[in-house]
Design brief:
Blueprint (H helix, E strand, L loop, with lengths): L2 H16 L3 H23 L2 H17 L10 H19 L24 H11 L4 H12 L4 H8 L3 H21 L5
Helix pairs in contact: 1-2, 2-3, 2-4, 2-6, 3-4, 4-7, 6-8, 7-8
Length: 184
């Protein structure tokens, strides 16, 4: 489905949702639940927290659906809510040691992901050592496959900033992985 068709579909679902159509809201959840969960998991490294963030993200989105600006992509607006919720959860949980958990989604993904469970765990562990800004750009680009323009909207920063953050995040992630003995 093309981006314009996606935008039109999402716009129609949002309008129907604003009119009280529960099926339209359910359709939005079905379209974006997996992506928001994956985003939250990559940001937090914890299944339960990711599930909570996903639920909270949709609740907040639907409570504030009237503030959505249809000039922008719905998924960008929703991802921004998801990133904010993940960061808020991370701050609340600061100092709590996460449990080692396997990556829940082994589907098609970014260049960093492979079918190797051990490598997946090492990459997630390294990702959790990055700061929030770097983890967000890596997650959005490589796991959610967002364009630079979409990332700029989601993160509310200029595209140039997105590019420089991503460059630095990749460099730092490579350093963490190298220090852990993980080779490309």
């Amino acid at each position: 489905m093309g981006k314009e068709m996606e935008r039109a579909r999402d716009g129609q679902l949002v309008q129907r949702g604003l009119q009280g159509d529960r099926q339209a809201l359910e359709a939005l959840v079905n379209l974006y639940h997996g992506a928001i969960y994956k985003l939250a998991y990559r940001m937090l490294g914890n299944r339960e927290d990711a599930a909570d963030v996903t639920q909270t993200c949709f609740l907040k989105a639907f409570e504030n659906l009237g503030s959505y600006n249809p000039e922008y992509k719905f998924f960008s607006w929703l991802y921004r809510i998801g990133i904010n919720e993940a960061l808020n959860t991370r701050r609340r949980n600061a100092g709590i040691e996460p449990l080692d958990q396997p990556i829940p989604d082994q589907g098609d993904g970014p260049e960093l992901a492979t079918g190797n469970d051990e490598l997946q765990t090492q990459v997630q562990t390294a990702l959790m050592q990055l700061n929030d800004e770097h983890r967000a750009v890596i997650t959005l680009r490589h796991y959610s496959e967002c364009s630079y323009a979409d990332m700029a909207v989601i993160l509310a920063v200029p595209e140039k900033t997105v590019r420089s953050r991503l460059f630095e995040a990749r460099r730092k992630l490579q350093g963490v992985l190298s220090a852990a003995g993980v080779e490309r």
